[in-house]
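Query structure, 322 tokens:
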């Protein structure tokens, strides 16, 4: 197989391209002669624009390093789940900065972000994502941005999605243990199957509002004064109705979880919820994942993926002031 071209560089690239094509077409018996200058230009441009390989993997092993790609527009996938619906990505913020985030690929919406609100690295080569047992974001100029502070063997993203650092290299090894997981460090969003406990908090993207759990209630808190208390002041409280199960003092803390049946349930040491906040789609199947998010106006809202957009399905504060 050979190609007649005018330059050595073009000959190399086109020979490589057509060699790959010939491997998939065993009936190709004759040499390929490319003499049309326009065709040569288009083929070489397409090859060169593809740039270096940026294949997305389903597992990160020790020694992995990734840097931001200047060609990526909104987010740059690094690690994907088995369905391809979610990815651990560099997410662009203000064009020239980034956060490490779990992104819902069809919509580009982040469901989790590493580190505290406002912790932004530069979108450029000084920034690196490294896995050396810990998953680390570092910048040669600014130093360490964020780390899982673990000694793991691999990193995976489950289909919930939950980012996990695991001890044990073999995915089939039942002895693999979870050293760290993003489910334990939510940002502003909860997803199905994720337990939200009294040790956690959701923080809105502007940093002004938080959701936390009390002994028997869901509380929304706000920082009404700049530089005020980190705890903020409570402005909305939803107590458990305890219709099917009671919350008993001294029997452990409560947790909140999104059910696939379309409700936000409050539990204490039982599979029976002490309280449910029903969604509009209650007990109806939906085509995609569900999520609940504390938003920049201080309300807690629930959504499901319709296949083309996130449909509003729930509001904790049903009526808001204009």
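Result returned for the query:
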């Amino acid at each position: 197989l050979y190609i007649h071209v005018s330059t050595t560089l073009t000959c190399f690239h086109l020979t490589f391209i057509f060699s790959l094509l010939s491997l998939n077409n065993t009936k190709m018996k004759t040499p390929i002669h490319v003499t049309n200058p326009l065709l040569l230009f288009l083929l070489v441009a397409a090859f060169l624009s593809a740039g270096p390989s940026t294949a997305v993997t389903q597992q990160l092993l020790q020694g992995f390093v990734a840097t931001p790609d200047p060609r990526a527009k909104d987010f740059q996938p690094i690690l994907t789940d088995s369905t391809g619906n979610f990815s651990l990505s560099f997410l662009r913020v203000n064009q020239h900065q980034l956060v490490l985030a779990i992104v819902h690929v069809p919509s580009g919406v982040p469901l989790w972000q590493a580190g505290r609100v406002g912790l932004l690295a530069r979108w450029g080569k000084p920034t690196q994502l490294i896995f050396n047992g810990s998953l680390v974001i570092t910048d040669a100029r600014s130093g360490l941005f964020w780390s899982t502070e673990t000694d793991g063997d691999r990193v995976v993203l489950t289909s919930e999605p939950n980012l996990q650092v695991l001890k044990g290299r073999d995915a089939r090894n039942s002895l693999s243990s979870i050293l760290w997981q993003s489910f334990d460090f939510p940002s502003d969003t909860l997803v199905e199957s994720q337990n939200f406990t009294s040790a956690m908090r959701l923080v809105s993207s502007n940093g002004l509002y938080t959701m936390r759990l009390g002994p028997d209630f869901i509380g929304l808190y706000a920082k009404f004064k700049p530089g005020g208390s980190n705890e903020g002041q409570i402005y909305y409280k939803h107590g458990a109705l305890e219709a099917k199960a009671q919350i008993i003092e001294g029997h452990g803390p409560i947790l909140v979880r999104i059910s696939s049946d379309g409700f936000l349930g409050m539990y204490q040491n039982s599979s029976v919820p002490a309280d449910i906040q029903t969604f509009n789609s209650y007990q109806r199947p939906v085509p995609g994942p569900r999520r609940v998010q504390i938003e920049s106006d201080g309300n807690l809202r629930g959504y499901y993926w319709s296949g083309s957009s996130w449909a509003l399905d729930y509001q904790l504060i049903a009526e808001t002031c204009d």
